[in-house]
Structure formats: structure tokens, C-alpha cells
Write a structure and sequence with these properties.
The complex is a heterodimer of chains A (582) and B (425). With 582 residues, chain A is α+β, with helices and mostly antiparallel strands. Chain A has three domains: 168 residues, Elastase, domain 1 (Roll); 206 residues, no CATH class; 112 residues, no CATH class. Helices cover 36% and strands 17% of the residues of chain A. In chain A, strands 3, 6, 7, 8 and 9 form a five-stranded mixed β-sheet that branches. In chain A, helix 4 runs antiparallel to helix 9 and helix 9 crosses helix 10. Chain A is globular, with a radius of gyration of 24 Å. The C terminus of chain A is likely disordered. Chain B has 425 residues and is α/β, with parallel strands linked by helices. Chain B is built from 16 helices and 14 strands. In chain B, the strands form two sheets. Chain B has a seven-stranded mixed β-sheet with strand order 6-5-4-3-2-1-14. A six-stranded mixed β-sheet of chain B has the order 7-9-10-11-12-13. The N terminus of chain B is likely disordered. Classes of the chains: A alpha+beta (582), B alpha/beta (425). Chains A and B meet through strand 4, strand 5, strand 6, strand 8 and helix 17 of A and helix 11, strand 8, helix 12, helix 15 and helix 16 of B. Strand 5 of chain A pairs antiparallel with strand 8 of chain B.
Chain lengths: 582, 425
């Protein structure tokens, strides 16, 4: 037995099938010997409700067939054992999707292997990931009509929060104080994963595309126009949560795909809030998905017919979403270690795809992504037209390869050790610090070393080793100019303010131990550091000792909780208002 | 003739003397403004009368002095907002009646106190938007929550240590519904004005020669215009409501060890659970406690920000009474350039929120041109707790007030219950 099938709620309890029952599906997840909880090798469900101080008896799935396969709707809603199964199955499915795309096991961000999941953690319209409590916590609250809304039953909410945890495991530095793109990336990326992963559930897509019961196997062509698809439940995030917790919204918590693109959005202060900024990223990726999907449909839709076979439509959605989802997950390995921008992510997406598919293919994923990001004023961080003309990069938006003008020294390292020994990689880095342009007057260390095997859609296998190194430099504001001439402290910042500069890079080695890419964030990059410090200073994002760039001052493990609460109820003063005091 | 009459400037009756009495209510506010005219007439406005203190005897002494000062009648009562430290006396048996007998011509309260908000939403939709009505409901729900928290702290604050518990309960006690006081204020007065930024104060006819401007609180519609900085978003209030409702619902009927959420579900004894489960339970309890603390703080701030801000102008003298308005309330007023110019001339400033953290924003403080002036220096009145404290009044603010204004503060008072300051003579 290699897989286990478990019933989950497909979207949330408010989304029904044509019979008016909660839309559900069964998902395959890797088989493991589960203990009561369920408690597996990566996920441990502990059903404790801190508001009522109640510990529910753990659900023990044993080796039984899915006990909820034929359960009634009321049982799904009222049996906490099903809720435990629901979160376990969704998280394990997501984890296996990430591991499949990246070609390796993925760590959580807190150093141990099992993440806690509390499906009824507290009475609150909130759900979050806490690195301190090594867990994912889902709240519940009374909705408009007094019925309890359980966030653990929302597929989108569970995937969104679990993605925060996975991303933290892959890039722990993305929670370090930075400019607004980085926090926006955490939110936008989690939304993208939540929405695209639903398209892997073909029966759910089929059910949600068919509006009328009579349309058993066919769907009207009119329903496949991009404008109509954008309004589908499939592309709205957290329908029930959005409806019940936020009376101001029409149908869901977020529907980034319908946002009208604005080239100046990133410069607008309204878009500094991380969830709103994240919508820019998800709008660009999800509209790329719609465009690829509709291109695929156009390639075979018959002229004249008013209805078309639903199976083919669903298959196209599956393929397009799966390709983009894999790209997004793999791109993480090609993203900078600190201070990620949306332009960096775009370059990472394009590069990782090019590595596996030299030809952009029939549906032009890369071209579409470039265009959709451009509508929001986002250009790739690398690979400008002149670089393409000069032959520095093979295609627009791709990361540069190391220059052949400054050959790297490989004599000092053993190829095989480069795949598994951080000390060996550090030696490579140190010996080549001049060629790699590394500022050597900063604290520098290797934070991860990950060999991986990736498989292209055509079966081509790509082996790579991904290594991250990080740099920090702690100094006083008055000393910034000593790092780089153009570096300056924000206006009004006292000279004796403690600041931390971050830098680092990703080294990607090929199968032969040669460096393919060096995606770096130079610690002495004045433009990046100036804009980051200016943002932190303007918004008062500092730690409890008044230092800038170290942490945002949130209590340990409450960062994501507060991020949501700031958005939802502003239950604390924004930091800049704290400044505006006597 | 008619035309000449109309054009002829009418010399308006002006107050010859303006006095302000500050009463020692402990942690609270009570100010009486007296305007005396040449014909011997005096008109008075009471701004707040409340305290966090449970010492009724002390409050009774204050109210007796106040009533004597009013000589049996008062023109107006301003209840800046519904926090206990501003209106408690109106709800106290014996004292409330004495204040009611002053028979004010008008009672002024913020728009958020309109007793028929849902109907008012139809009458004045620009003020009472659907979001505003929801906002008011969320405030009510949050106050109920505060009341419940005080009555049953063991349920909600089980994970809290004694200091945290005492701090949360103290803060929540400010926000409990002062039903008796609110009812009396609604009953008192021949007229009521529920004011918002830019509205008429209702004092125009009652105080000849005095211009009174209402600077706050803004309506939700007004606040939308400063959207980026604001926390007064309709959606956000609804979420706060959802959050409060969730905690209230889950705690009101909860007995330990039994779930109201899934009554039929089997539960385990926490004490007998494995240590790795207890480890998580401890952290979840702590997270829950943080959540409750934040809701109580949010409620306190939300109520402070319903404060009426009044600016009195008598000749060239400006007197500013902002209640407990915090920055969010001030922000709408402070975007008005003309108003900022007027604020620069303020001669007397009632220090906002007893000298606490963000009720005197720098953006306001920096406007006061009379700070440090040799002649006509800014006068500040600080009604606050006696003795020295780390949080209220904030030490850095007190230092600035001492060095740059003529500060009168109840902080150092010993046996004194009242002081009076003459602003205009």
C-alpha cells in the first residue's frame, strides 16, 4: 500500500454540489502508519480548544478505509474527528506536492519534523502559522446567522496557512524585516498555491464549472470566456470565511484575479499592506493561468457548437494549473535569500522553467507570465533586452550565468562533497569570494544545502544542488557610509541607531558540481539597503530594543497571527503611530 | 431702512470673564467652564464627570462642590465618550440625580451615542452608514464582552498570571457598559446633540460671543477619506465584532472540560495527556490570552476615539478640550490646513487621555505655537492619577508639559478637590 485515500471538504461547507450537499472529494496521500491524532511522520493533529479549554479525544484512522467516505453533511460538520482528518489530509497532500516539485524532502522552519495542527485552536476569526508553537492553528467564530464557521474546513485557509509554514521552512529569512514586497510575497504566494492546487482535484473543478445539473458531460462555451472564469468560485479565496467574517465583501476573502491591473500599484501606499500587496502577485500568476487555460481551450474548441465536453476542459485546467504550480514551487530555489521582490520571483519563475523546457512551447507560459507581471509594472529582476542582445542571458527575464571572464576556482573543493557538506561549500564560497563579488567584511555562513532531482514534463531529469548563504552586518546608522558610498541613513534617524543589513545568495550547482547560477543580494547594494531602511524607519518596524532590521518586534511565534489581526481588526497601533507620540 | 439695519454690525454680547474649574476625581475628567457677561449673567458648560475610582464618598464631595459652583443651573453638559472615567457620576445613585437637577439646556455626546442609530441611519445616512451601525453594534458587543470578562475572569484569563489578569481586568473595567449613566444622559437635557467633526455643537445660541467648533469624532464616511492611515474601516470593525463575538460565545456558557462546540464529542483530561500535548496546550493558552488582551486594548482605543473634541474661541483665545481622543480621531481634523492654523493659537489645552501614550500626537503638539512663549504661554490642564506612574501620565509628556507650558496637574494634589483658572478677565 503506497497511498491512502481520505475524504476532505473540497472548498468549504458553503460550497455545495448539484444535490445541495457539501462538495467533497477524496484525495490520495502517501501511506504511513498513523497514530491517534492523526499523528504521522510530518503532521500531528492535536485537537485542543484554548477558548473552551477542551481537549478532544484524538482521531485514530488506523488502517481502516476512509471512515467518512459516505458520511452525512451533518456528521462532517459536527464530528471533530473528521476535522482532524480534513486538515491532516490537506496538509499532507500539499507537502507531497511541494516535495514532488522540488525533488527532495522539505523541512519545517522550526527544526523538528512534525508540525502540530490544532483544528479548533480558539474562538476567533483567525488562522495562522506559529513557528514558536511549531504549529498551524485554526479558529472558529459565529457567522452572520450565528452558525459556527470552522476555518479548519476551508481548503483555501488550510492550504494558505500550511504554505506559510512550508515557505518558512524553505526560506526562513523571508520573515526578517524587509521592504513590503517580501511580506506581500509570503501572502501572495500562499494564495497562489491555495488556488492553483484546487485545479489538481478534477472532480471538484468539474463540479464547480458545471452550474446546472443537466450539464452532465457538457459545458456551454460561453462559460469558458476568461471574464466568466475569473468570477468562478474556483478563483476566489476562502468563500465562507470571506462571507461570514467580512460583511463588506461580496463573495470571498480575496479575488485577486479580478483586480484591475495598475502599473503604479507597487508605489501606492495602499498596496504596502502585505495582503493587498500579495494580491498583485496572485493577480499576475492567476491571470497567467487563465490566459494559458483559455489558449489551450481555443486550440481545440469547435466553432459552431454551443456546448463542449467538460472532461477536456477540466484536463486543460489541470495541465495549465499543474505546470504553473510546479513552476511557482520550484522557483523558490531560484529566489534570492533575502529581500525578495516580485521582479526577483518573476526571474526565478522564468529561469526554472527554462532549465527544464528550453522551448517556451505551444502555450507560451513564460511570455504570458512576463506580460501579466508587466501589466502591474513588474519587470524581471534580470535579463533585460540589452543582456539578451549581448548574449548574457538566453531569454528575457532569465538570471545571468556566472561570467566566464572571471573563472571560478574549483580545485579547492571535491565535487561530491559539494552536494552534502556545508563546510565544503563554504570553502568554495570563500576561495571564490572575489570572483563572486562577495563583500567579505560581513558575518557570512551557509544556511542550507539541498541536492534535488527535478523531472520535466517530457521526462527529462535535472539534478541540481541548491545552496543558500547568508550575510549580516550590524552597525550604527552613522557607519552606513563605510559599507558603500551611496548608503545613507533615512532622514531623521539618529546616528546612534542600531541597524542590521542583510545579504546573501543562492548558489545553484549542476550535476557536475559547476556553478550555474549565483542569485545574490549584495549586502553592500546601496539602493536596496537604502530603500529597505527607509521603509522600516518610516513604518517604525523595529525590535523591542529600538533596533532596525533585526526583527519586527512581534512576540516570538505571533508574527503571522498579528499580521492577520492588523489587517482584520487593527488590534494594535501601527508602529508609525507609536512614533507619533510624546 | 431694512437694508441698513441688516448691514449695521451688531455688537455681540461677549463674555467678560472665562474661568475653568478642574476637579480632582482621581483617574477621570471633570471640568466646568464658566462664562460671565457684563450684565452679571453666567453661563456654564460641564465637560465630563467620571472616575475609575470606586470611592463614592470622594466623588460625592466633588459633585457637591460642582453643583454649588453651578448655582443650580447649567447650560450644557458634554459627555465626551462613554468610558467610565468620563461619565460614571451620572450613573451613581444620589449623584446622578444631583447632576440631573442642574437641568441642562443641552446634552452633547458623540454621534456614536445616538440611541436610535438604525433609524438615524435613514435620517442622516451620511453619518449613520450601514457600516456605522455595524460599528456601533460591534462596540456594544465588545462592551458586553468586557463585562463578561470582569465577571468571569477565570474562564477567559485562565492562562494569565496575577499581574496580567489584574491589568486586563482593570482595562476592561473602563469599557463596561455604563448603562445607568448612559440612560441618565439620554434622559437629561431639553435637547440633545450627537455631534461629529464639522457638525454644529448646539452651543451656538447658549454661549453668546463664543464660537465652538466640533473637531471630532469623525464619522466613518469622513474617516474613509483618510483611508490609508485609518483603522476605522467598516470591514475591519466587522471583523473585530466577529472576533469578540467568537470569544464571548465560546466563554459565556463554558464549563471546563465540556465542549459547547461539539457537545457529543468525546474529550480527554488535559492533566492525563502526554507531555508533548501539554507542551502545545501551554502555548495555545498563551496565544489565546494575547488575543483577549488585544481585544480589550482595541475596545479601549475604539471608545477613546469616539471622544468629542471641542475648540472654544472667545475673542482671540482658543481653548481645546479633546476628551480622550487618540491619533485616529485626530487624523481627520489634522488634515484641514485652516484648522491647523487655528490650533496653532490654542491658549489652553486639556491634556488628552490623562497624559497617556498617544493622545497628544506630535503632529498636534508641534502645532501649538504658544509653547514656550514668554507672553501668553500655553496653559495645560492634566487630570490624572495622583503620584508617579510609568504609563499614565507618561513621564516624557509630563516633562514636556512642565517645560513648555504652564502645567496644572492633579497628579501632585493632596487634599485639594478643585482648582480654578481664569483665562479671560
Amino acid at each position: 500500500m503506497t497511498t491512502r485515500r481520505m475524504t476532505i471538504i473540497a472548498q468549504d461547507p458553503s460550497i455545495k454540489n448539484s444535490d445541495g450537499e457539501i462538495l467533497r472529494t477524496r484525495v490520495n496521500i502517501p501511506y504511513e502508519e498513523l497514530g491517534p491524532g492523526p499523528r504521522g511522520y510530518r503532521v500531528h493533529v492535536v485537537d485542543y480548544d484554548s477558548s473552551q479549554r477542551v481537549l478532544y479525544h484524538p482521531f485514530d484512522p488506523g488502517d481502516d478505509a476512509d471512515p467518512f467516505e459516505n458520511a452525512s453533511d451533518s456528521r462532517l460538520l459536527e464530528d471533530p474527528a473528521f476535522h482532524a482528518q480534513n486538515v491532516y489530509a490537506i496538509i499532507m497532500r500539499l507537502l507531497s506536492r511541494f516535495e514532488g516539485a522540488l525533488g527532495r524532502r522539505i523541512p519545517w522552519g522550526f527544526g523538528v519534523q512534525q508540525i502540530h495542527v490544532a483544528p479548533h485552536a480558539f474562538a476567533d476569526a483567525n488562522a495562522y502559522y506559529s513557528e514558536d508553537a511549531q504549529g498551524l492553528f485554526f479558529g472558529y467564530f459565529p457567522g452572520v446567522n450565528g452558525e459556527i464557521v470552522l476555518t479548519c474546513l476551508s481548503h483555501d485557509v488550510v492550504v494558505h496557512e500550511a504554505t506559510h509554514a512550508l515557505l518558512d521552512g524553505l526560506r526562513e529569512t523571508y520573515t526578517v524585516p524587509s521592504h513590503p514586497d517580501q511580506a506581500g510575497f509570503h501572502e501572495g504566494f500562499a494564495d497562489v498555491i491555495a488556488l492553483l492546487s484546487v485545479f489538481g482535484l478534477s472532480d471538484v473543478v468539474r463540479a464547480l464549472l458545471l452550474k446546472r445539473e443537466s450539464e452532465a458531460n457538457y459545458i456551454p462555451k460561453d462559460d469558458l470566456r476568461a471574464r466568466v472564469l475569473r468570477t468562478n468560485v474556483l478563483l476566489g479565496l476562502a468563500e465562507q470565511f470571506g462571507n461570514e467574517a467580512s460583511r463588506h465583501r461580496a463573495d470571498c476573502l480575496r479575488r485577486a484575479v479580478s483586480r484591475r491591473p495598475r502599473k503604479d500599484a507597487l508605489r501606492d501606499l495602499v498596496f504596502e499592506e502585505c495582503h493587498i500587496r500579495g494580491e498583485i502577485l496572485s493577480a499576475a500568476v492567476l491571470n497567467s493561468f487563465i490566459e494559458v487555460w483559455t489558449r489551450r481551450l481555443e486550440s481545440w474548441l469547435p466553432t459552431g457548437d454551443e456546448v463542449v465536453p467538460i472532461d477536456r476542459v477540466v484536463e486543460d485546467a489541470y495541465d495549465a494549473a499543474s505546470h504553473l504550480l510546479t513552476m511557482c514551487i520550484r522557483a523558490l530555489d531560484y529566489c534570492p535569500v533575502v529581500d525578495i521582490t516580485f521582479g526577483d520571483f518573476l526571474s526565478a519563475l522564468l529561469t526554472v522553467d527554462l532549465e527544464l523546457l528550453v522551448d517556451d512551447g505551444k502555450y507560451k507560459y513564460r511570455q504570458i507570465l512576463r506580460n501579466q507581471f508587466e501589466l502591474w509594472g513588474i519587470n524581471p529582476a534580470s535579463g533585460a533586452e540589452d543582456q539578451v542582445r549581448a548574449g548574457e542571458v538566453p531569454e528575457l527575464g532569465i538570471w545571468e550565468r556566472p561570467s566566464s571572464d572571471t573563472p571560478l576556482n574549483y580545485e579547492c573543493v571535491h565535487r561530491e562533497s559539494l552536494e552534502k557538506d556545508m563546510n565544503e561549500v563554504f570553502r568554495f564560497l570563500w576561495e571564490n569570494r572575489k570572483q563572486l563579488g562577495i563583500f567579505d567584511n560581513a558575518y557570512t555562513w551557509i544556511i542550507s544545502l539541498r541536492p534535488c532531482v527535478r523531472v520535466a514534463p517530457d521526462g527529462f531529469v535535472l539534478k541540481e544542488t541548491v545552496c543558500e548563504y547568508r550575510q549580516t552586518l550590524d552597525l550604527l546608522a552613522s557607519q552606513l557610509r563605510s559599507v558603500s558610498d551611496g548608503m545613507k541613513k533615512p532622514e531623521g534617524m539618529p546616528d546612534d541607531t542600531h541597524v542590521r543589513l542583510n545579504g546573501g545568495g543562492v548558489l545553484i550547482f549542476d550535476d557536475f558540481g559547476h556553478l550555474k547560477y549565483h542569485i545574490r543580494s549584495r549586502i553592500d547594494n546601496a539602493k536596496r539597503q537604502n530603500s529597505r531602511l527607509e521603509y522600516l524607519w518610516r513604518n517604525g518596524i523595529r525590535d523591542r530594543n529600538g533596533r532596525y532590521g533585526f526583527s519586527d518586534g512581534s512576540p516570538k511565534g505571533r508574527r503571522f497571527a498579528l499580521m492577520h489581526m492588523r489587517r482584520d481588526g487593527r488590534t494594535e497601533l501601527p508602529a508609525e503611530w507609536e512614533d507619533d507620540q510624546q | 431702512m431694512t437694508s441698513n439695519k441688516r448691514n449695521k454690525p451688531v455688537r455681540q454680547k461677549m463674555p467678560e470673564q472665562v474661568r475653568i474649574a478642574m476637579y480632582d476625581v482621581g483617574f477621570g475628567d471633570c471640568f466646568l467652564l464658566s462664562f460671565s457677561y457684563a450684565d452679571g449673567e453666567a453661563r456654564r458648560v460641564l465637560i465630563d464627570c467620571g472616575s475609575t475610582s470606586e470611592n463614592k464618598k470622594h466623588m460625592s464631595q466633588v459633585v457637591n462642590i460642582l453643583v454649588d459652583d453651578c448655582e443650580g443651573h447649567i447650560e450644557a453638559i458634554v459627555a465626551t465618550h462613554r468610558h467610565r472615567d468620563h461619565i460614571s457620576a451620572f450613573g451613581l445613585k444620589g449623584l446622578g440625580e444631583k447632576l440631573e437637577k442642574l437641568n441642562p439646556e443641552i446634552v452633547i455626546q458623540p454621534w456614536t451615542e445616538h440611541p436610535d442609530a438604525e433609524e438615524a441611519a435613514i435620517e442622516a445616512p451620511s453619518v449613520f452608514t450601514a457600516g456605522a451601525v455595524r460599528h456601533l453594534r460591534s462596540l456594544d458587543a465588545a462592551q458586553e464582552f468586557a463585562e463578561h470578562l470582569i465577571n468571569r475572569p477565570n474562564n477567559i484569563l485562565s492562562a494569565a498570571g496575577p499581574r496580567t489578569r489584574s491589568r486586563v481586568v482593570r482595562l476592561a473595567s473602563l469599557s463596561i457598559p455604563n448603562k445607568k449613566a448612559i440612560e441618565r444622559l439620554t434622559r437629561m437635557g431639553k435637547k440633545h446633540a450627537y455631534v461629529h467633526s464639522g457638525s454644529q455643537s448646539g452651543l451656538e445660541r447658549l454661549l453668546p460671543g463664543v464660537q465652538v467648533s466640533v473637531l471630532g469624532p469623525p464619522t466613518l464616511t469622513q474617516t474613509q477619506s483618510i483611508r490609508k492611515q485609518t483603522q476605522w474601516d467598516e470591514d475591519e470593525f466587522w471583523k473585530l465584532f466577529a472576533r469578540v463575538a467568537a470569544i464571548s460565545a465560546s466563554n459565556i456558557a463554558t464549563a471546563r472540560g465540556r465542549s459547547d462546540l461539539f457537545p457529543k464529542a468525546r474529550t480527554d483530561t488535559i492533566a492525563k495527556s502526554p507531555s508533548y500535548v501539554k507542551w502545545l496546550i501551554k502555548r495555545l493558552d498563551r496565544a489565546q490570552l494575547h488575543n483577549v488582551q488585544r481585544i480589550v486594548r482595541a475596545l479601549d482605543r475604539a471608545l477613546n476615539n469616539t471622544s468629542v473634541i471641542l475648540l472654544f474661541k472667545i475673542g482671540d483665545k482658543m481653548l481645546l478640550f479633546p476628551g480622550d481622543a487618540q491619533l485616529e480621531n485626530w487624523q481627520y481634523a489634522l488634515k484641514d490646513r485652516k484648522l491647523k492654523r487655528r490650533l496653532s493659537k490654542v491658549l489652553l489645552y486639556k491634556v488628552g487621555h490623562h497624559g497617556s501614550t498617544n493622545a497628544t500626537p506630535k503632529s498636534l503638539w508641534n502645532l501649538f505655537a504658544r509653547r514656550s512663549a514668554n507672553d501668553g504661554r500655553l496653559i495645560s490642564l492634566l487630570s490624572t492619577k495622583r503620584g508617579h506612574h510609568s504609563e499614565v501620565p507618561r513621564t516624557s509628556l509630563v516633562k514636556a508639559l512642565e517645560s513648555e507650558t504652564v502645567l496644572h496637574s492633579t497628579q501632585g494634589w493632596r487634599r485639594k478637590l478643585r482648582e480654578e483658572y481664569t483665562i479671560l478677565e
